[in-house]
Amino acid sequence: MSRKRKSYIALMRGAMYVCCALTAALLLFLLGYVLYKGIPNITWELLSTKPSYLADRIGILPDILNTVYIVLATLVIVLPLGVGAAIYLTEYAQNKRVVAAIEYAAETLSGIPSIIYGLVGMLLFSNNFGTCLQAGALTLVIMNLPTVMRTTQESLKTVPQSYREGAFGLGAGKWRVIRTVVLPGCVDGVVTGCILSVGRILGESAALLFTAGFAHALNDLFTGLLSPGATLTVALYVYAKEDGEFGVAFAIAAILMLLTLLINLSASLVGKYFAKRRSV
Q1: pLDDT tens across 202-213, in order?
Q2: 48-62, 119-133, 221-235 — which is least confidently predicted?
C-alpha cells in the first residue's frame, strides 16, 4: 500500500472519529443541560397537583394524565390498523405494483412535517368532534400508521418461508399459519413498532396544538378524551412561551427526556429478548 493511500485512510479515519466525538458531545451536552436545569424543579407537588391560579400553584398532573390518555387512545386504533395492513400486504396481496405503491405512500407520509398533520387533523377531526384529545389521537393515528405498518412488514419478511411451507404441509390454513407461525416469529417487530410509536406520540406537539388544545383540566379517561387537554409537550410550550415559567418548562423537558431514554432502552431490550428467544 502506497504512502499516499495510507495517509488518505488515516485522514478519513480521523475525520470519522471527529464526527463521532462531536455527535456524542452534542448529545451529552443536551442531556446534561436539560437534566441539570430540569431535575431540581421536579417536585412531588408539581407532579401530583393541577394548576391553580388562585393559590399561585403550578401542577402538571392533568398534563401527565392527558398524555397517558392520548397514548392509549392512539395505540388502540393504530396497532390493529397497522398490523392488519402489514399482514395483508405481506401475506395476502398478489398485485406487487399496488403493494409497492402503498409502501411508497407510507414512506412519503412518514416524511411529512407534523404541522401539516395538525392542519389536516383540525379540518377533518376538530371540525367534527371539536378541539379535544380524541381529535388529537385520530391525528396521531394517521401520523404513526406508516411506522407501525412498515416496521411490522419488515419483521414479517424476516420469518423464513420454510416455516410457512412446513405449516402448509401439515395441513394448516392460511390464517392459522399466520396466527401460529408467522406472527409469533415477528412479534419483536410489532412490539418495537409499538414502542417507537409511543415515543413519537410523547414527543409530538405541533399537531396537538391544532387538534387537542392546551387546557390543564383534570378529567377521567372518557371525559378527558372528549375535552380539550394539553399533553406534556404542549404544556412545555405553553409554560415556556406563553407564561414564561422556564423552571417548569425545563422540569417537563427533563421528564420527557427521561421517558424517551426509557422508551429507547425498552425497545432495545425487547428486541434482544425476542432475538435470544428465537435462537434458543
Answers
A1: 888 888 888 988
A2: 48-62
Q: Is the CA virtual torsion 232, 236, 242, 247 positive or negative?
A: positive
pTM of the predicted protein model = 0.85
Q: Please name every residue paired with 52 in a beta bridge, in sequence order, or none if there are none.
A: 57
- Cβ pair 143, 200 in contact under 8 A: yes
- pLDDT at residue 280 greater than cutoff 70: no
Instruction: Look at 244 and 148; give whichever has higher pLDDT.
Output: 148
Of 239, 237, 232, 241, the residue nearest 203 (C-alpha)? 232
Angle at the Cα of 190 from the Cα atoms of 187 and 193, rounded to 5 degrees = 150
